[in-house]
Model the fold of this input.
Amino acid sequence: MKKEPLISVIVPIYKVERYLAKCVRSILNQTYRNLEVILVDDGSPDGCGAICDQFAQEDSRVRVIHKENGGLSDARNAGIDIATGDYFSFIDSDDWLDGNAYEAMLAVAEKYNAKLVCAGRYDEDETTGQSQVGLCPEKEEFVPGKELVHRIFRWDHLDSAAWDKLYARELFQQIRYPVGRVVEDVPTTYRLVLLAGGGAMLPRPVYHYLHRENSITSSAISEKSFHAVQNASQVYEDVCRSLPELAPDARYLLIVAQKYIVQTLDLEEKATREQFAKEHAQYRRALRGHLGFAMKYDKFSLLGRIEMVITAFGLFPAVVHTGRFFKKSSKKS
Done:
C-alpha cells in the first residue's frame, strides 16, 4: 500500500485571537488527513498561545512552539526547523483554506512529479464581506523554472506569496526567510521556484486571503514600508547577475514597488512626508530613471505609462484630487 506523504502546515501567529480558530479548523478539517500542524506562537500578547495549546490537546497532529516575538519570517523559520513532513505549506493565521485544498494540491504535485505547486486564491474583504477570485493559474500544467519566475515577477495569474503554494521538503534544506523583513516572500519564492525546476499549476482558488485594515501590509507607513522596495532591489541585482534574461521582469517588479511607495507618500499627511522626505525624493528620482524602460516594456499599458510619468514628476496628488484618472495603487504583498 502506498504511503501517504506527510504535509507540515506551518502557521505563524501574532495578535490574531479573533481569527485563529477559524484558520486552524480549516486546516484540521481537510479531506487530506496526514498532516502535521505547527502553530508558532510568536510571542503573541493576547490569548493566541492558550488557543494553540487547546488545539494541541484536542488533536494529536498539532504541535505548538511558544517563542519570543521575532516577526513573520522568524516564526516561519522556527516551524521549518522542526517540521518533519514530506511537503511544507505556510498559512497566515487570519486566513483559511477550502476543505479539500491539500488533497487537490498533492494530487497535482504527484501527477507532474513536481516539487512545488501553485494554486489560486480568493480575496476576502473584511470590511465589506465581499469575496472574489484573486490571482489564479489559468490551466493545469507544469511550468519550467525560468518561465514560472517570469510569471511571478509580472503577477501573471500568480505572485510571490508563500501561502498559496505547496513545497517539497528538500527545497528548504538551505533556504530560509529573511528575518526582520516584511514582504519576505519576494526575495525567497523565486529562489525556491528555480531550485524546484518549476512548478505544477492548480487552476482553482483554494486559499482565502483576508484583507483587513490592521494587517502588516495595510498598517501606517513606517520603516518597514520600504522593505518591499529593498527586497525588489535585492532581487533585481541578483537576477541581473545570475539570470540576465529575466532582468526586465525583475526591473518591472522593482518599478512597481517604487511607484507604490511614492504614491503612498504622495497622499500621506505633511508630517509623514517630511519624515520620509529623503526616501520620497530618492524613489521618485529612481522612477524618472526607469521611464525609458517603461515606455517599451510590454507589461505597462498606455495608462500605466502615463501614471509613471505623473508619479515620477510629482503630479500624482494633483491628479488624484481631481478624481478623474487614478486612485492610489493597491498592491498585495
In short: The first helix runs from residue 20 to 28. Strands lie at 7-13, 35-42, 62-67, 87-90, 96-97, 116-125, 131-133, 142-144, 165-168, 198-211.
